[in-house]
Q: What sequence folds into this?
């Protein structure tokens, strides 16, 4: 074992792992869509790390912005007006298209969601918060309560008032649904949601969270009309609509924010990851005018030592400029089309691929034992044999780095990937899926 790994295993606690069961790769270099291990082996970063390295590694403009800001003023408390603090907020509001909105900056995504919860409560004076079962909203205590999937369990019984709903997922809807059209799917899930609102008491419900496009839990893209219907329900019952765009924001789906793909304006939008592409941490909440206004007179009970950290804000400005200068939206449109064709082909040709879902450069491959029964390749929250880590390991051996969740493999490369890089990387996945086809025979 190399010295770096030995030291790491002795002193670090690695996320979401039984420490004796992991073997963290020692990374020695990262550039563009690639990184290298200590033996010089090269990997395609096909998950953009944790879907945050949207502009890949070693981006000169971002590095320069960090250097310049560190020289000029590395830190100033959040109560002061600082040029980069003001400019970053303006740029984010303008990018969101939410006129009159303001930004409350945090360190990262979970904290953004924590503060969105408090704002929804402050705005409505109500207390219950809805979020989807198939969701991940972060690992702080409140964000863990929002999270619907099993990473929530450690925080339970937790805080009262966090209610879970079933978001649209036609592929795994109850068999009896037998949907005939996308409109049927929308109508079903909206009816389910309204019933749940009624039984939880609309006068108790402060807010409802959505990952605008569900990320880690399987790239679930809402059916046509779903968000319009949700918006109408939120207006009807005075419930704050909160889009968590921590993963889906900043061009991941093709548009600046994922909610731009749908005909809705959320009341709160949380963001992080792609705001700085991971070069330094930064997150925040875009607070719509109607909610921001209540804090004109009423005290906002939110604050962090590092809120709107100048290093983060300077990096955000450089990142947003780079997205524009490098025509990232166009590249996502072009490469997203290439990726979609490749994935659709995988769904047809590979016995182990139940369904692929994609929007922009945000996609996943859902693995099954049988296309007919749709039985997942591993049982829910019980991959005792470690089959999914094994498949991810097979990809890694071939130089394709990504991660899996339940029976799904995520494909979300940096947004500046070229067509050649994308096609080459996906050839690796094709080959590994051939082996998985054989494993389920
Ligand atoms: C949709 C979503 N929300 C929130 C978070 C939490 O963000 P962070 O890890 O920056 O706290 C994540 C992290 O993956 C996420 O995907």
A:
């Amino acid at each position: 074992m190399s010295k770096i790994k030995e030291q790491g295993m002795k002193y670090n606690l690695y996320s979401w792992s039984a420490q004796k069961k992991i073997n963290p790769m020692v990374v020695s270099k990262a550039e563009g869509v690639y990184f290298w291990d200590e033996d010089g082996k090269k990997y395609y970063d096909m998950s953009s790390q944790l879907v945050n390295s949207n502009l890949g590694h070693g981006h000169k403009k971002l590095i320069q912005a960090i250097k310049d800001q560190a020289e000029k003023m590395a830190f100033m408390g959040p109560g002061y007006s600082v040029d980069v603090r003001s400019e970053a907020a303006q740029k984010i509001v303008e990018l969101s298209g939410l006129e009159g909105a303001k930004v409350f900056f945090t360190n990262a995504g979970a904290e953004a969601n924590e503060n969105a919860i408090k704002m929804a409560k402050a705005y409505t004076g109500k207390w219950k918060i809805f979020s989807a079962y198939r969701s991940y909203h972060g690992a702080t205590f409140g964000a863990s309560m929002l999270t619907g999937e099993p990473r929530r369990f450690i925080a339970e019984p937790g805080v009262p008032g966090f209610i879970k709903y079933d978001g649209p997922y036609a592929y795994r809807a109850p068999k009896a649904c037998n949907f005939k059209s996308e409109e049927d799917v929308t109508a079903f899930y909206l009816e389910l949601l309204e019933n749940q609102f009624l039984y939880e008491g609309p006068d108790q419900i402060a807010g409802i969270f959505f990952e605008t496009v569900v990320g880690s839990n399987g790239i679930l893209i809402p059916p046509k009309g779903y968000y319009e219907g949700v918006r109408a329900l939120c207006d009807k019952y005075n419930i704050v609509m909160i889009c968590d765009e921590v993963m889906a924001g900043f061009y991941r789906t093709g548009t600046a924010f994922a909610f731009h793909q749908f005909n809705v304006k959320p009341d709160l939008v949380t963001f992080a990851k792609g705001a700085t592409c991971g070069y330094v941490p930064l997150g925040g909440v875009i607070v719509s005018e109607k909610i921001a206004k209540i804090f004109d007179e009423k005290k906002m009970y939110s604050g962090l030592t590092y809120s709107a950290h100048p290093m983060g804000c300077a990096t955000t400005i450089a990142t947003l400029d780079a997205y524009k200068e490098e025509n990232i939206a166009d590249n996502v449109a072009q490469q997203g089309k290439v990726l979609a064709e490749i994935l659709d082909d995988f769904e047809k040709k590979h016995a182990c691929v139940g369904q692929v879902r994609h929007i922009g450069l945000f996609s996943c491959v859902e693995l099954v034992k049988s296309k007919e029964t749709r039985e997942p390749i591993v049982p829910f929250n019980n991959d005792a044999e470690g089959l999914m880590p094994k498949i991810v390991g097979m990809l890694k051996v071939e130089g394709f780095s990504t991660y899996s969740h339940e029976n799904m493999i995520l494909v979300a490369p940096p947004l500046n990937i070229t067509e050649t890089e994308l096609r080459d990387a996906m050839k690796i996945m094709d080959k590994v899926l051939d082996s998985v086809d054989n494993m389920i025979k």
